[in-house]
Protein: ADP-ribose pyrophosphatase
Amino acid sequence: MTNHPCIGIGAIVFNSKNEILLGKRISSHGESSYAPAGGHLEFGATFEECAIREVLEATNLIIENPQFIAVTNDFFEKEQKHYVSIFLKAHCLNEHELQNLESHKVESWQWFALDNLPSNLFLSLKRLIEKKCHLYKEIIDEPNLSNFKYPDAYLCKTLAIRV
Structure:
């Protein structure tokens, strides 16, 4: 284990149906869990540049206008790894061109409806959902989901029962 946390970037990518893209991990920490596209922040890169690059390298998808969502502080006890994970959200411009370009890291990529996410979510993604649900609890206590303009607010409303 390194004495310093690593910085990871996670991209919550939405398609035209407001579904999010998750990949089933087969390597490193979090094996068999579902995680968004992402990777390590490289020296000199912005969060947005990293998200765009990581999504393209892993999936062949082009995202536009990535926007900051939240930061999580994640300690993976079994693997003795510590990550500060920075999440951004973005919309995909070419969702039908999805490919698995990193099959040594990800078994497959799949679009998931926000109300039908897999139960085995990657630790950082779980923490993001818990954090966002807590922050938005009062704001999104609205029965009509069509009033929500932002996908992360919809995500929190949809998953509020799970937390």
